[in-house]
Amino acid sequence: MNKKNDFKVMSLGALAMDIVLEASSLPQEDGFGLITNEKSVPGGSAANVSVALTKIGAKVWQVGKIGDDDHGKIFRADLMKQGIQTEFLLEKPQGVTLHTYIITTPQGEHCIFANKGDCVLDLKASELPINCMEGMDCFYNDLFSDNAALWLAEEAAKKSVPVVYNMQCAPSFMKICGVEGDKIEKMLSMADMIIGGGKSFEELCGKKAGDEIAKILYDRYKPKDGVICTMGSKGAYWHGKEKALYIPVFPVDVKDSTGAGDAFCAGMIFAYYASGEKEIKYAMEFASACAALKCTCKGPRSRSGFEDIIELMKKR
Q1: How far is C-alpha 88 from the chain's CA centre?
Q2: Which of 223, 145, 216, 213 is nearest to 183 (CA)?
Q3: Contact status, residue 65 vs residue 87, Cβ threshold 8 Å
Q4: Where are the alpha helices (DSSP H) in 273-316?
Q5: pTM above 0.85, yes or no
Q6: Phi and psi at residue 56, in whole multiples of 5°?
Q7: Residue 303: how many CB atoms within 10 A of its CB?
Q8: What are residue 23's DSSP bridge partners?
Q9: Three-class SS of residue 236?
Q10: What would the DSSP string read from start to end of 73-132?
Q11: How far apart are CA 6 and CA 245, in angstroms?
Protein backbone atom coordinates (compact mmCIF):
# COMPACT_ATOMS: atom_id res chain seq x y z
CA MET A 1 0.00 0.00 0.00
CA ASN A 2 1.36 3.40 -1.01
CA LYS A 3 0.32 5.72 1.80
CA LYS A 4 -0.43 9.41 1.28
CA ASN A 5 2.22 11.16 3.39
CA ASP A 6 -0.10 13.70 5.00
CA PHE A 7 -3.58 12.17 4.95
CA LYS A 8 -5.94 14.52 6.77
CA VAL A 9 -9.25 13.47 8.30
CA MET A 10 -11.96 15.52 9.99
CA SER A 11 -13.83 13.41 12.55
CA LEU A 12 -17.14 14.42 14.12
CA GLY A 13 -19.50 12.51 16.37
CA ALA A 14 -19.81 10.78 19.72
CA LEU A 15 -17.19 11.97 22.21
CA ALA A 16 -17.43 10.33 25.61
CA MET A 17 -15.78 9.27 28.78
CA ASP A 18 -16.35 5.55 29.25
CA ILE A 19 -16.83 3.99 32.67
CA VAL A 20 -15.82 0.39 31.94
CA LEU A 21 -17.23 -2.30 34.22
CA GLU A 22 -15.63 -5.73 33.88
CA ALA A 23 -18.33 -8.17 34.94
CA SER A 24 -18.96 -11.89 35.19
CA SER A 25 -21.91 -11.64 32.77
CA LEU A 26 -24.07 -9.13 30.92
CA PRO A 27 -27.20 -7.78 32.65
CA GLN A 28 -30.16 -10.18 32.84
CA GLU A 29 -33.71 -9.34 33.87
CA ASP A 30 -34.07 -9.68 37.64
CA GLY A 31 -30.55 -11.16 37.79
CA PHE A 32 -27.20 -10.47 39.41
CA GLY A 33 -23.65 -10.13 38.14
CA LEU A 34 -20.29 -9.55 39.79
CA ILE A 35 -18.14 -6.55 38.82
CA THR A 36 -14.48 -7.56 38.95
CA ASN A 37 -12.94 -4.23 37.87
CA GLU A 38 -14.05 -0.65 37.27
CA LYS A 39 -12.21 2.19 35.53
CA SER A 40 -12.81 5.41 33.56
CA VAL A 41 -11.20 5.81 30.13
CA PRO A 42 -11.65 8.34 27.30
CA GLY A 43 -13.82 6.86 24.53
CA GLY A 44 -16.73 7.76 22.29
CA SER A 45 -17.07 6.27 18.82
CA ALA A 46 -15.78 9.27 16.84
CA ALA A 47 -12.83 9.78 19.16
CA ASN A 48 -12.03 6.05 19.00
CA VAL A 49 -11.91 6.31 15.19
CA SER A 50 -9.71 9.41 15.48
CA VAL A 51 -7.22 7.67 17.77
CA ALA A 52 -7.08 4.56 15.57
CA LEU A 53 -6.50 6.69 12.46
CA THR A 54 -3.71 8.60 14.19
CA LYS A 55 -1.96 5.39 15.23
CA ILE A 56 -2.14 4.09 11.67
CA GLY A 57 -0.59 7.27 10.29
CA ALA A 58 -3.27 9.87 9.54
CA LYS A 59 -3.47 13.44 10.82
CA VAL A 60 -6.84 13.96 12.49
CA TRP A 61 -8.88 17.00 13.52
CA GLN A 62 -11.48 16.17 16.17
CA VAL A 63 -14.66 18.22 15.90
CA GLY A 64 -17.33 18.29 18.59
CA LYS A 65 -18.47 19.81 21.86
CA ILE A 66 -17.66 18.73 25.40
CA GLY A 67 -18.43 20.22 28.82
CA ASP A 68 -16.05 22.06 31.11
CA ASP A 69 -16.59 19.29 33.68
CA ASP A 70 -13.95 16.80 34.81
CA HIS A 71 -14.93 14.38 32.04
CA GLY A 72 -14.38 17.08 29.42
CA LYS A 73 -11.01 18.17 30.80
CA ILE A 74 -9.68 14.60 30.90
CA PHE A 75 -11.07 13.92 27.43
CA ARG A 76 -9.39 16.91 25.75
CA ALA A 77 -6.07 16.29 27.48
CA ASP A 78 -6.08 12.70 26.28
CA LEU A 79 -6.79 13.64 22.66
CA MET A 80 -3.93 16.12 22.70
CA LYS A 81 -1.64 13.47 24.19
CA GLN A 82 -2.63 11.17 21.30
CA GLY A 83 -1.52 13.82 18.78
CA ILE A 84 -5.04 14.73 17.62
CA GLN A 85 -5.79 18.33 16.61
CA THR A 86 -8.38 19.89 18.95
CA GLU A 87 -8.83 23.41 17.59
CA PHE A 88 -12.40 22.52 16.49
CA LEU A 89 -13.27 20.81 19.79
CA LEU A 90 -15.51 23.34 21.56
CA GLU A 91 -16.29 23.56 25.25
CA LYS A 92 -19.68 24.37 26.78
CA PRO A 93 -19.57 26.34 30.04
CA GLN A 94 -21.15 24.31 32.85
CA GLY A 95 -21.80 21.58 30.29
CA VAL A 96 -22.12 17.86 30.95
CA THR A 97 -19.88 15.74 28.71
CA LEU A 98 -21.38 12.60 27.17
CA HIS A 99 -20.37 9.57 29.20
CA THR A 100 -21.14 5.87 28.99
CA TYR A 101 -21.20 2.78 31.16
CA ILE A 102 -19.73 -0.17 29.28
CA ILE A 103 -20.17 -3.65 30.73
CA THR A 104 -17.76 -6.28 29.40
CA THR A 105 -17.36 -10.00 30.13
CA PRO A 106 -14.37 -12.39 29.97
CA GLN A 107 -15.94 -13.85 26.79
CA GLY A 108 -15.52 -10.52 24.96
CA GLU A 109 -19.23 -9.59 25.10
CA HIS A 110 -20.26 -6.04 25.91
CA CYS A 111 -23.23 -3.70 26.25
CA ILE A 112 -23.34 0.09 26.58
CA PHE A 113 -25.55 2.53 28.52
CA ALA A 114 -25.16 6.19 27.53
CA ASN A 115 -25.73 9.44 29.43
CA LYS A 116 -25.82 11.91 26.54
CA GLY A 117 -25.19 14.97 28.73
CA ASP A 118 -26.00 18.32 27.11
CA CYS A 119 -23.03 18.97 24.80
CA VAL A 120 -22.52 16.49 22.00
CA LEU A 121 -25.82 17.25 20.25
CA ASP A 122 -25.55 20.97 20.95
CA LEU A 123 -22.86 21.79 18.37
CA LYS A 124 -24.12 24.12 15.63
CA ALA A 125 -22.61 24.67 12.20
CA SER A 126 -22.44 28.39 12.93
CA GLU A 127 -19.94 27.71 15.73
CA LEU A 128 -17.35 26.29 13.32
CA PRO A 129 -15.00 28.27 11.04
CA ILE A 130 -16.44 28.62 7.54
CA ASN A 131 -13.27 27.20 5.99
CA CYS A 132 -12.59 24.35 8.44
CA MET A 133 -12.93 21.69 5.71
CA GLU A 134 -10.13 23.30 3.70
CA GLY A 135 -7.29 20.85 2.98
CA MET A 136 -9.08 17.77 4.37
CA ASP A 137 -8.91 14.42 2.56
CA CYS A 138 -11.89 12.75 4.25
CA PHE A 139 -14.83 13.63 6.50
CA TYR A 140 -15.96 10.94 8.95
CA ASN A 141 -19.09 11.24 11.11
CA ASP A 142 -21.68 9.20 13.00
CA LEU A 143 -24.36 11.98 12.91
CA PHE A 144 -24.11 12.90 16.57
CA SER A 145 -23.97 16.71 16.43
CA ASP A 146 -26.35 16.35 13.48
CA ASN A 147 -26.61 20.05 12.58
CA ALA A 148 -22.85 20.42 12.22
CA ALA A 149 -22.47 17.00 10.57
CA LEU A 150 -24.89 17.78 7.74
CA TRP A 151 -23.29 21.16 7.11
CA LEU A 152 -19.80 19.69 7.05
CA ALA A 153 -20.97 16.95 4.67
CA GLU A 154 -22.26 19.65 2.32
CA GLU A 155 -18.96 21.53 2.56
CA ALA A 156 -17.06 18.30 1.92
CA ALA A 157 -19.13 17.62 -1.21
CA LYS A 158 -18.30 21.09 -2.56
CA LYS A 159 -14.60 20.27 -2.26
CA SER A 160 -14.92 16.66 -3.54
CA VAL A 161 -13.87 15.37 -0.10
CA PRO A 162 -15.30 11.87 0.53
CA VAL A 163 -17.91 11.58 3.29
CA VAL A 164 -17.92 8.39 5.39
CA TYR A 165 -21.02 7.85 7.53
CA ASN A 166 -20.84 5.29 10.33
CA MET A 167 -24.42 4.42 11.16
CA GLN A 168 -23.49 2.81 14.43
CA CYS A 169 -26.83 3.35 16.18
CA ALA A 170 -30.31 2.31 15.11
CA PRO A 171 -32.71 5.10 14.02
CA SER A 172 -34.92 4.47 17.07
CA PHE A 173 -32.00 5.13 19.43
CA MET A 174 -30.89 8.18 17.43
CA LYS A 175 -34.44 9.57 17.76
CA ILE A 176 -34.27 9.16 21.55
CA CYS A 177 -31.03 11.18 21.41
CA GLY A 178 -32.76 13.92 19.40
CA VAL A 179 -31.70 13.05 15.83
CA GLU A 180 -34.78 12.72 13.63
CA GLY A 181 -35.19 10.26 10.78
CA ASP A 182 -35.16 12.88 8.02
CA LYS A 183 -31.63 13.88 9.05
CA ILE A 184 -30.50 10.26 8.97
CA GLU A 185 -31.98 9.92 5.49
CA LYS A 186 -30.21 13.07 4.34
CA MET A 187 -26.82 11.86 5.60
CA LEU A 188 -27.37 8.45 4.02
CA SER A 189 -28.06 10.17 0.69
CA MET A 190 -24.94 12.39 1.00
CA ALA A 191 -22.41 9.77 2.08
CA ASP A 192 -19.80 8.35 -0.29
CA MET A 193 -19.39 5.30 1.96
CA ILE A 194 -21.92 3.97 4.48
CA ILE A 195 -20.77 1.65 7.27
CA GLY A 196 -23.10 0.14 9.84
CA GLY A 197 -23.70 -2.66 12.27
CA GLY A 198 -26.40 -5.28 12.10
CA LYS A 199 -29.01 -3.66 14.34
CA SER A 200 -28.99 -0.23 12.66
CA PHE A 201 -29.25 -1.71 9.17
CA GLU A 202 -31.85 -4.29 10.20
CA GLU A 203 -34.10 -1.54 11.53
CA LEU A 204 -33.75 0.40 8.29
CA CYS A 205 -34.64 -2.58 6.09
CA GLY A 206 -36.60 -4.94 8.30
CA LYS A 207 -34.28 -7.79 7.35
CA LYS A 208 -31.42 -9.66 9.00
CA ALA A 209 -27.92 -8.27 8.44
CA GLY A 210 -25.72 -9.64 5.69
CA ASP A 211 -25.06 -9.35 1.98
CA GLU A 212 -28.74 -8.94 1.16
CA ILE A 213 -29.13 -5.96 3.48
CA ALA A 214 -25.97 -4.31 2.12
CA LYS A 215 -27.36 -4.67 -1.40
CA ILE A 216 -30.74 -3.25 -0.40
CA LEU A 217 -29.12 -0.18 1.12
CA TYR A 218 -26.74 0.27 -1.81
CA ASP A 219 -29.64 0.12 -4.27
CA ARG A 220 -31.57 2.60 -2.14
CA TYR A 221 -28.84 5.23 -1.59
CA LYS A 222 -26.14 4.35 -4.19
CA PRO A 223 -23.13 5.72 -2.26
CA LYS A 224 -20.18 6.06 -4.65
CA ASP A 225 -17.86 3.88 -2.56
CA GLY A 226 -20.40 1.32 -1.40
CA VAL A 227 -22.17 0.03 1.72
CA ILE A 228 -20.46 -2.07 4.39
CA CYS A 229 -22.41 -4.20 6.84
CA THR A 230 -20.26 -5.27 9.80
CA MET A 231 -21.42 -8.31 11.76
CA GLY A 232 -18.91 -8.75 14.57
CA SER A 233 -17.49 -12.27 14.69
CA LYS A 234 -19.37 -13.15 11.48
CA GLY A 235 -17.27 -10.80 9.36
CA ALA A 236 -18.31 -7.97 7.03
CA TYR A 237 -20.07 -7.52 3.69
CA TRP A 238 -19.39 -4.77 1.16
CA HIS A 239 -21.72 -4.00 -1.72
CA GLY A 240 -21.07 -1.56 -4.55
CA LYS A 241 -22.06 -1.08 -8.16
CA GLU A 242 -22.64 -4.61 -9.53
CA LYS A 243 -20.09 -6.02 -7.07
CA ALA A 244 -20.18 -7.69 -3.66
CA LEU A 245 -17.49 -8.89 -1.28
CA TYR A 246 -17.40 -10.83 1.99
CA ILE A 247 -14.44 -10.70 4.40
CA PRO A 248 -14.26 -13.08 7.40
CA VAL A 249 -12.72 -12.02 10.69
CA PHE A 250 -9.11 -12.70 11.59
CA PRO A 251 -8.96 -15.32 14.36
CA VAL A 252 -7.49 -13.74 17.48
CA ASP A 253 -7.66 -14.16 21.25
CA VAL A 254 -10.58 -11.83 22.04
CA LYS A 255 -10.30 -9.92 25.31
CA ASP A 256 -12.71 -7.03 24.66
CA SER A 257 -14.73 -6.31 21.50
CA THR A 258 -15.63 -2.75 22.59
CA GLY A 259 -14.59 -0.32 19.87
CA ALA A 260 -13.90 -3.00 17.24
CA GLY A 261 -16.37 -1.36 14.86
CA ASP A 262 -14.62 1.98 15.33
CA ALA A 263 -11.25 0.39 14.56
CA PHE A 264 -12.80 -1.17 11.44
CA CYS A 265 -13.98 2.27 10.27
CA ALA A 266 -10.53 3.78 10.82
CA GLY A 267 -8.84 0.96 8.94
CA MET A 268 -11.30 1.22 6.06
CA ILE A 269 -10.90 4.98 5.71
CA PHE A 270 -7.12 4.79 5.74
CA ALA A 271 -6.68 1.78 3.46
CA TYR A 272 -9.27 2.90 0.91
CA TYR A 273 -8.71 6.65 0.71
CA ALA A 274 -5.13 7.33 1.86
CA SER A 275 -3.54 5.17 -0.84
CA GLY A 276 -5.44 6.76 -3.71
CA GLU A 277 -5.81 3.26 -5.19
CA LYS A 278 -9.29 2.55 -3.80
CA GLU A 279 -8.80 -1.23 -3.84
CA ILE A 280 -11.80 -2.55 -1.96
CA LYS A 281 -10.62 -6.09 -1.15
CA TYR A 282 -7.33 -4.86 0.32
CA ALA A 283 -9.14 -2.14 2.28
CA MET A 284 -11.66 -4.61 3.74
CA GLU A 285 -8.86 -6.98 4.78
CA PHE A 286 -6.94 -4.09 6.37
CA ALA A 287 -10.05 -2.89 8.22
CA SER A 288 -10.84 -6.41 9.44
CA ALA A 289 -7.28 -6.82 10.76
CA CYS A 290 -7.50 -3.44 12.48
CA ALA A 291 -10.75 -4.50 14.21
CA ALA A 292 -9.31 -7.89 15.19
CA LEU A 293 -6.26 -6.33 16.83
CA LYS A 294 -8.51 -4.00 18.84
CA CYS A 295 -10.25 -7.08 20.25
CA THR A 296 -6.97 -8.38 21.67
CA CYS A 297 -6.73 -5.55 24.21
CA LYS A 298 -9.09 -4.19 26.84
CA GLY A 299 -10.71 -0.78 26.54
CA PRO A 300 -12.52 1.03 23.70
CA ARG A 301 -9.50 2.14 21.66
CA SER A 302 -7.05 0.55 19.26
CA ARG A 303 -3.36 0.46 20.15
CA SER A 304 -2.15 -0.92 16.81
CA GLY A 305 0.05 0.81 14.27
CA PHE A 306 0.26 0.31 10.51
CA GLU A 307 2.95 -2.38 10.68
CA ASP A 308 1.00 -4.36 13.33
CA ILE A 309 -1.96 -4.53 10.96
CA ILE A 310 0.17 -5.57 7.99
CA GLU A 311 1.76 -8.37 10.04
CA LEU A 312 -1.64 -9.79 10.97
CA MET A 313 -2.80 -9.61 7.34
CA LYS A 314 0.17 -11.77 6.32
CA LYS A 315 -1.18 -14.57 8.54
CA ARG A 316 -4.46 -14.92 6.62
Answers
A1: 18
A2: 145
A3: no
A4: 280-295, 306-313
A5: yes
A6: -75, -35
A7: 14
A8: 35
A9: strand
A10: HHHHHHHHHTT-B-TTEEEETT----EEEEEE-TTS-EEEEEE-TTTTTT--GGGS-TTT
A11: 29
What values do phi and psi take at 206, rounded to 5?
70, 20
Burial of 39 (0-12, 13-18, 19+ CB in 10 A): exposed
Which tens digit of pLDDT belongs to each residue from 125-175?
999 999 999 999 999 999 999 999 999 999 999 999 999 999 989 999 999
Q: How far apart are CA 79 and CA 61, in angstroms?
A: 10
The three-state secondary structure class of 263 is helix
Phi-psi region at 264: left, alpha or beta (left = phi > 0; alpha = psi -120 to 50): alpha
Asked if 164 and 265 touch (Cβ cutoff 8 Å), the reply is yes
What does the alpha-carbon distance between residue 90 and residue 68 come to, in Å, rounded to a whole number? Answer: 10
By C-alpha distance, which of 275, 302, 299 is closest to 291?
Answer: 302
CA-nearest of 118, 186, 119, 113 to 152 is 186
